[in-house]
Amino acid sequence: MPRRMSDRPPASPLALAVLSLLEVGPLHPYGLQRLIRQWGKDTVVNVGQRASLYKTIQRLERDGLVTVHQTARDQAFPERTVYALTDEGRRRGREWMIQMLAEPRNEFPPFPAALSFAMLLGPADLQAALERRSAALATRLAELDAELGGEYAHLPRITLIESEYQRTMVAAELAWVDAVAAELGSGALTWSYEQLASIASADVRGVGEA
């Protein structure tokens, strides 16, 4: 029985990467992983765990988006299954790509989650943490500048547009983090445990009585 539209699993960055790379031609999972890294797409697609890649491919095969092209045998390597893109996989990949490009999603990253409870730290501790983050962001910004202006500079802009986006986001975050750290250092942004405890106690009582 064919899967209903509501039963279809949602798009994921890794699934989109697999479908997109198979546009080039049939590949086995190791080749897909190597190509993602070789093209620098591992900064936006998590391929650190080979098991996740295999599970994604199995799901795509189950849904008829990829199919077994052949089983490759080589004396130097174990038997490898080579996968090819189906017509439905090509169509669905384009559909997912447009959806991801057009529709913002709240993906619940860890940094905003930690910020939402940062009042549990003192101003000095939060400032120290943000200064550490600032140093890491500055390093990442330098890496992106080197990538965009270095060995890949000869490539068409569209092939590095995700790095261009990342650079814009990292630069904006760095500016914001530095500004907040400066306010913490000057005392312009501060709070006290007693003030927050009073607010929290009132809210907890309200929830308990509801």
Structure description:
This protein is mainly alpha-helical. The chain folds into 2 domains: 5-102, Arc Repressor Mutant, subunit A, CATH 1.10.10; 110-209. 59% of the residues lie in helices and 9% in strands. It has 8 helices and 2 strands, in the order H-H-H-E-E-H-H-H-H-H. It has helices at 13-21, 29-38, 50-62, 87-102, 110-115, 123-149, 161-186, 193-209; strands at 66-74, 77-85. Strands 1-2 form a two-stranded antiparallel ribbon. Helix 1 (13-21) packs across helix 4 and helix 6 runs antiparallel to helix 7. The longest helix has 27 residues, at 123-149. 15% of the residues are buried.
Task: Describe what is shown at a glance.
The chain is mainly α and about 210 residues long. The chain has helices at about 15-20, 30-40, 50-60, 85-100, 110-115, 125-150, 160-185, 195-210, and strands at about 65-75, 75-85. It folds into two domains: about 5-100, Arc Repressor Mutant, subunit A, CATH 1.10.10.10; about 110-210.
Strand content: 5-15%
Low-confidence residue ranges? none
Per DSSP, the total helix count is 8
Number of domains: 2
Gyration radius, rounded: 23 Å
Largest sheet: 2 strands, antiparallel
Distance N to C terminus: 47 Å
- Strand tally is 2
The helix fraction, in percent, is 55-70%
Helix and strand sequence? HHHEEHHHHH
The strand line-up of the biggest sheet is 1-2
The class by helix and strand makeup works out as mainly alpha
Shape: elongated
Q: Roughly what is the average pLDDT, rounded to an integer?
A: 88
